[in-house]
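$ ./design --mode recover --in tokens.txt
reading tokens...
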């Protein structure tokens, strides 16, 4: 349900490490979508990682240091928006747990209350119903684990994609199954991880879609790599790029 907003909101974009280093076009697409929705967007230079790799590895001390830096960097914004369900889940769900019964507890709670994943923010907060974009072809959509299970991101991207001219959505079987890109899981159990992503790419190809979309770059890079190794002719893109009408090279097929 759309929230009532009385002024043009000031949004701090949490870019994410992978977007910054590997696919900056996702960041530019996010800015375009947010501005089109009526937001003033800024990218705080002090931001770094969300801390998820350290957190998943049990490094609590470094995770807390990263979290404090992030909270301070985004404290002045009305909303904090991330084009990633896993990063948004870390910021929103796990930051408050790091500071229970500490001097930072109130600040962490206030911060997490203003965090949103990009698709959810556009639909649930800003009330965006459609976008002005075109994409000729069939696409299938992968629901990332963190976005789906921690934040309830499922219907929102599909609603926006339904307004894209020329786009046909072909749901894959088992769309909510993990892609195998699970933090340190892939490093510790490569054979199991490879089996998971192989099952995922089977489902992608079986959908008949020529393009795979998702809202998490980690998932997309993992699936794109496997599809390319299999010789599959499937383009892979972040959903924000399609919604923003940005048709640069697909992931793994040239510079963004």
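writing sequence...
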């Amino acid at each position: 349900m759309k929230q009532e907003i009385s002024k043009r909101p000031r949004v701090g974009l949490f870019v994410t490490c992978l977007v910054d280093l590997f696919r900056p076009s996702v960041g530019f697409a996010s800015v375009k979508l947010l501005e089109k929705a009526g937001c003033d967007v800024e990218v705080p230079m002090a931001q770094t990682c969300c801390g998820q790799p350290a957190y998943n590895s049990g490094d609590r001390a470094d995770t807390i240091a990263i979290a404090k830096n992030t909270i301070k960097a985004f404290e002045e914004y009305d909303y904090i928006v991330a084009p990633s369900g896993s990063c948004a889940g870390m910021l929103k769900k796990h930051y408050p747990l790091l500071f229970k019964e500490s001097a930072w507890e109130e600040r962490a709670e206030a911060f997490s209350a203003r965090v949103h994943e990009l698709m959810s923010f556009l639909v649930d907060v800003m009330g965006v119903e459609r976008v002005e974009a075109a994409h000729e072809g069939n696409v299938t959509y992968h629901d990332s684990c963190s976005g789906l299970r921690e934040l309830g991101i499922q219907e929102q991207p599909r609603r926006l994609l339904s307004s894209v001219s020329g786009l046909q959505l072909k749901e894959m079987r088992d769309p909510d199954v993990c892609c195998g890109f699970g933090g340190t899981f892939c490093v510790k159990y490569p054979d199991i991880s490879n089996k998971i992503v192989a099952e995922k790419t089977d489902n992608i190809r079986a959908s008949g879609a020529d393009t795979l979309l998702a809202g998490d770059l980690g998932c997309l890079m993992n699936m794109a790599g496997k599809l390319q190794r299999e010789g599959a002719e499937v383009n892979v893109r972040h959903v924000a790029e399609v919604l923003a009408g940005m048709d640069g090279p697909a992931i793994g097929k040239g510079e963004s």
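exit 0
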